[in-house]
Amino acid sequence: MARIGIAGIGGRMGKLLAEEIAAAGAALAGGTARGDDPAVLFAASDVVIDFTHAHAAPVHAAAAVAAGTPLVLGSSGLSDAEEAAVRDAASHVAIVYAANFSPGVNLMLAIAERMAASLPGADYDAEIVEMHHRQKVDAPSGTAVALGRAVAAGRGEALRMESGRDGHTGPRQTGTVGFAALRGGQVVGEHTLLFAAGSEHIALTHRSFDRRVYATGAVRAALWVVGKPPGLYGMKDVLGM
C-alpha cells in the first residue's frame, strides 16, 4: 500500500486529497502546514503531493531529492527560476509536474496541439480566455499558459504571448497567442481556446465544476509515479497519451 503525503494538508485541496487517497485504497502518510519542515513528511512517504504555493516548489523539490521520494506538483504560477529548480531536481528523482490534473483538460491540451498544427498562425489567430474564482492570485492561469504552449508546440515555435491589452494597443500581432483572464465569484475553472480566421471561428472549451477532479487526478499521478526512474513527467505520461 502506497504511503502518500500531502503538503498543505489543511487547505481546501489538502482535504480533498486526503479523501481521495482513502478512496483509492492508499495510506495517508501525513501532511504539513505552513512552517513545518517538509523533510519529515518526505522521509515518511512513498510520494508527496504539493498543491501549495509556487514559492514552495523549489523547497519541496529539494526535499524530494534529499529523501529520494517522488513528488507530484500541481502549484501554478511558477517563475522561470522556480521551474528551473524543479527541472534540476527531476534529474535526481521522479516528479510529475502538471498545470492541471483533470483528464479532460489534458485531452484538451493534446487536441489543442493537433489543431494548431493544422491551423497556421498566419491565418488563424489563437486566443485563450480563462475564468477562475476571485481568490486566485496568478494570471493567466497555469492551464491557460499550458494551452498557449500546446498551440506553440503544434506550430513548431516558441510561445509568444499577447496579454493585458489596455488602451491604444495597435493591431493584433500575427502569430502570437492572446490571453484574457477573468476573476469573480467561486468559478472552479473555465478555459476556452479560440482559433479565429477571416472565414471561420473554432472554439474548444473546458469547464470544471468540482475541484475534486484535480484531487482524483493527482492521486492517480501519485500512485503511478511510485517506483519510476528520475525524470520530469506530465499527466500525458500518467494517462498514457
Automatic annotation (TrEMBL):
Active-site annotation: H132, K136
Positions that bind NAD(+): G8, I9, G10, G11, R12, M13, G74, S75, S76, A98, A99, N100, F101
UniProt keyword annotations, A-Z: Amino-acid biosynthesis, Cytoplasm, Diaminopimelate biosynthesis, Lysine biosynthesis, NAD, NADP, Oxidoreductase
Location of the Dihydrodipicolinate reductase N-terminal domain: 3-101
Reactions catalysed: (S)-2,3,4,5-tetrahydrodipicolinate + NADP(+) + H2O = (2S,4S)-4-hydroxy-2,3,4,5-tetrahydrodipicolinate + NADPH + H(+); (S)-2,3,4,5-tetrahydrodipicolinate + NAD(+) + H2O = (2S,4S)-4-hydroxy-2,3,4,5-tetrahydrodipicolinate + NADH + H(+)
Pathways per UniProt: Amino-acid biosynthesis; L-lysine biosynthesis via DAP pathway; (S)-tetrahydrodipicolinate from L-aspartate: step 4/4
Gene Ontology molecular function: any one: NAD binding
Subcellular location(s) of the protein: Cytoplasm
InterPro entries recorded: DapB_C, DapB_N, DapB_N_CS, DHDPR_bac, NAD(P)-bd_dom_sf
A GO biological-process term: lysine biosynthetic process via diaminopimelate
Tree of life domain: Bacteria
Protein family according to the UniProt entry: Belongs to the DapB family.
Cross-referenced PANTHER family: 4-HYDROXY-TETRAHYDRODIPICOLINATE REDUCTASE 1, CHLOROPLASTIC-RELATED, DIHYDRODIPICOLINATE REDUCTASE
Role of this protein: Catalyzes the conversion of 4-hydroxy-tetrahydrodipicolinate (HTPA) to tetrahydrodipicolinate.
Oligomeric form and interacting partners: Homotetramer.
Record's protein name: 4-hydroxy-tetrahydrodipicolinate reductase
Organism expressing this protein natively: Plastoroseomonas arctica
Gene: dapB
